Amino acid sequence: MASLNESQFIGADRDYRSARIVLIGCPLDVTSSFRGGTRFAPSSIRKASWTLETYSPYMRRDLKEVAALDLGDLPVIPTDLEGSLSLIEKRVEELLSDSKKPLFLGGEHLITYPIVKALKRHFEKFQIIHFDAHWDMRDTYEGMELCHATVMNKVKSLGIAKILHIGIRSGTEEEFRSGTPIQSIDSLKEQIDFDLPIYVTFDMDVLDPSLVPGVTTPEPGGLTFDEIIEYLLSISGMEIIGADVVELAPDYDTSFVSSICAAKVVREVLILME
Ligand SMILES: [Mn+2]
Q: How far is CA 211 from CA 19, 40, 183, 219, 224, in A?
């Protein structure tokens, strides 16, 4: 076993120059409506990663072959939402100028907006795969225009070619009228554009709360881990330009399994991004 370094995700220890993928922790935890706790997620995911093997039997590849570096957390400030969002955007901008692919460890889902905003300036056209129990497509929520419940609406307004929603099982009638969630691997393969690069945004509550209770908004009726793997395998070989794993609130799960699941999702996504 490699030496345990809980300040870094397992295997993400390349030097900056040779790294192709850069992990950034982003403990933004401001706009949650039910309960917060996502500020503790990046460190918990890193710690949980050390319970995993670097080899993925699903992808049949090892993290050791992936040129990744974990740069630690962004110093986001809870009392300055706008400032925190522009800090995220600026960091993504820097990474893209250095030809690195960003993988963000949330934090709340709102972080996807500044990440995609920066990506949009570098990539003319790409599609987003959105794993989530919730649409997050509201115009406003509790008077807020920028929050976890409006984030995918804000992202869409940036002019994204295509957003594919997987695992959605909660939202308003209006949100459900706005589109149809992907229900199977076949429909993902039908709807995905194989010529376009992908950004992956992964809300941990897409998984069933019996497996991942440590999230801000648990929603019964979710996907199993094996189903997630099937979806991820079906985009294997496609160009992934960035990703985030968000909404883990580790303290609601004293068993630590939610964090281990999040770390395992990150491992698979890292391998897919390489
Ligand atoms: Mn959600």
A: 32, 19, 20, 11, 8
